[in-house]
Amino acid sequence: MAGPVKGELAQYREMAAFAKFGSDLDASTQAMLARGERLTELLKQPQFSPLSMAEESCMIYAGTRGYLDGIDVADVQRYEEELLLNLHADHKDLLDEITKEQALTDSIESKLKAALEAFTKRFA
After folding, report:
1. What's the distance, CA 62 to chain centroid?
2. Tens of pLDDT along the chain (124 residues)?
3. What is the CATH number of the domain that holds 59?
4. Range of the domain at 60
5. How many domains does the chain fold into?
6. How far apart are CA 97 and CA 111, in angstroms?
7. I need a labelling partner for 70 at 20 to 30 A (CA). Which of 29, 49, 82, 118 fits?
């Protein structure tokens, strides 16, 4: 799960530095910068409040697959908090499967996509 986020954040940092000097950015560059801002915000955790591997996997998946793209940067922390509450309340079996498998199988990924799509629609 860490591979995609590392790559996207590296691209974000590189483009953010470049964007300081340029005024006209194409749509894809703007989208990449916006996603990088959200991923950076998503990775911030309160001290002494670590997430489980399953929780982190769900959050990183949401961030790297575009579920946060329509969320204001200021609302990313609230999105994360509410999503985790939703996952524990309505999708505990999904979190348990991720913990047991230690990977996102096709079956787990399809369940995660459905959970994220439903939650993100309600959140927005």
Report:
1. 4
2. 556 777 777 777 777 766 766 567 778 888 888 888 999 998 888 888 889 999 999 999 999 999 999 999 999 999 999 999 999 999 999 999 999 999 889 999 999 999 999 999 999 7
3. 1.20.150.20
4. 2-123
5. 1
6. 10
7. 49
Q: 3-class SS at 17?
A: helix
Q: How far apart, in whole angstroms, are the C-alpha atoms of residue 116 and residue 59?
A: 10
In this predicted structure, what is the pLDDT of residue 3? 64
The structure tokens listed for 14 are 């590189």
Using alpha carbons only, give the angle 77, 42, 32 rounded to the nearest 5 degrees.
120
* Distant-in-sequence, close-in-space partners of 109: CB < 8 Å, separation ≥ 6: 61
